[in-house]
Amino acid sequence: MRSDLPFLRNPVRRAPAKIVRHDRRYEDGAPVYQPVFRFADEHGTFIEVRDKLYMPFPKPVIGEMVEIIYPEGYPQQARIPYPVFRTLLYGLLGYAFVMLAMEITGWW
């Protein structure tokens, strides 16, 4: 949630980015992949950023163009937008918070 604060406090920029490679590591014996993309920020400087999410397969493929978002002034925090993932994540957190509050206050 802390990584989302700059997105809430600053205007969000969109930019095209090219997938240049995937960083691979192993978790529980299975490979997971993290896409690395390159894009030009608002000043025209090319920046290479590693996405925050790991995937069980190398997707998007190397050379593919994707749209990324980043908070204005913080291009190093760029990421590939996953709106369904973020909606589910915050929905589950909100549900857990409401259920906890109901349990504490005795409404449940």
TrEMBL record:
* Keywords recorded for this protein, A-Z: Membrane, Transmembrane, Transmembrane helix
Protein name (Swiss-Prot/TrEMBL): DUF3592 domain-containing protein
Q: Which organism is this entry from?
A: Parasphingorhabdus cellanae
- Source species taxonomy: Bacteria, Pseudomonadati, Pseudomonadota, Alphaproteobacteria, Sphingomonadales
Where do transmembrane segments lie in this chain? Answer: 88-107
